[in-house]
Amino acid sequence: MRAAIPFVSQENPEKERVWLETLSKYLPDEAILPLDKLSEGERQLADVAIVANPDPQALKQLPNLVWVHSVWAGVERLVNDLSEQSFSIVRLVDPQLQEAMAEAVQAWSLYLHRDMFEYAKLQRQATWQPLPYVPASARTIGVLGLGELGRASAERLLATGFNVIGWSRNEKIIDQVTTYTGDEGLETVLKSSDIVVCLLPLTKDTRGLLGFEALAMMQPGACIINFARGDVIDEEALQYALNTGQLKHAVLDVFAIEPLPKSHPFWTHPNITVLPHISAQTNIDSACQIVAQNIRNYRLLNLLPDVVDTKRGY
């Protein structure tokens, strides 16, 4: 008899219900239950769990886990809070998620490229003032982080006509994109980019990576988009760069604290666009199909999908 599969999340009851129903549709031979519905015996037997932004400490109630499958692409909380876990962590790799992120990067890069934030200010002032047009081919966009999401975004930006360069901690090759690694490579990308798009995973190496020193390397008047994790950018350093004119505008979809507190200065900063973490939302149906196939491969073939390197953090 197969062990029940715990679903561990901090989702609201309605969202959790949808996850459970959809997972059960694609895994009809499995019993998938919320963690609090499992008996102590069932918790002891569980060898795989499905997680959606869980409290990492809750997984300690499942002592015999072999692996957990996240339905999110980001797994830094699991990696950071469970540094001594004995189980493997699998993050969601979903082509639809990649498509959504590439679309968002394209949209907000065009927002900055075509000065839409400036026209919004002019509208509020009732000022009719055309701004100079710059062709996309004259703009360089630097993509930080060249994993699945970064690669898809870089390729979408290329198709839009931008000059694209990229940086990652490990060497990556993308057709028509000049890529860099290392500290010197990061400096080159920051100095060369009109717009920087941050898609880096949050690790001990990337936390606070874009601080005072890094932001000062950027071209005066450059813009930045953060669709990664809030803690990759030092908030104080970002405000300083925007207030001094070093940076022109920032589009932020992720923050150190979410939801962003109503008293936070980013809400009213004239050079910041605040988004509610929507750049690449998980598609429940496609995510559940991927999770289901991975669990079938494990049950039938004893195969695990690619697991997170906990030392690297992704």
Which features would summarize this protein structure in a list?
5-stranded parallel beta sheet; 2 domains; 35% helix; Rossmann fold; 10 helices; 7-stranded parallel beta sheet; 314 residues
What share of residues are in beta strands? 15-25%
Just name the CATH architecture of the largest domain: 3-Layer(aba) Sandwich
Number of domains: 2
Order of strands across the main sheet: 8-7-6-9-10-11-12
Q: SSE order, as H and E? A: EHEHEEHEHHEHEEHEHEHEEH
Alpha-beta classification: alpha/beta
- As a whole number of angstroms, the C-alpha radius of gyration is 21 Å
Helical content stands at 25-40%
What's the CATH H-level homologous superfamily of the largest domain? NAD(P)-binding Rossmann-like Domain
Number of strands: 12
Low-confidence region ranges: none
Which outline best applies?
Answer: elongated
Describe this structure in words.
The chain is of the alpha/beta class. It is built from ten helices and twelve strands. The protein has helices at 13-26, 40-45, 76-81, 95-113, 116-124, 148-160, 182-192, 212-217, 235-243, 284-301, and strands at residues 5-9, 32-34, 48-52, 67-70, 88-90, 140-144, 163-167, 178-180, 195-198, 222-226, 247-252, 272-274. It has a seven-stranded parallel beta sheet with strand order 8-7-6-9-10-11-12. It has a five-stranded parallel beta sheet with strand order 2-1-3-4-5, covered by helices on one side. The longest helix is centred in the first third of the chain and has 19 residues, at 95-113.
Layout of helices and strands, plus pairs?
Blueprint: E1 5-9, H1 13-26, E2 32-34, H2 40-45, E3 48-52, E4 67-70, H3 76-81, E5 88-90, H4 95-113, H5 116-124, E6 140-144, H6 148-160, E7 163-167, E8 178-180, H7 182-192, E9 195-198, H8 212-217, E10 222-226, H9 235-243, E11 247-252, E12 272-274, H10 284-301
Parallel strand pairs: 1-2, 1-3, 3-4, 4-5, 6-7, 6-9, 7-8, 9-10, 10-11, 11-12
Helix pairs in contact: 1-10, 4-6
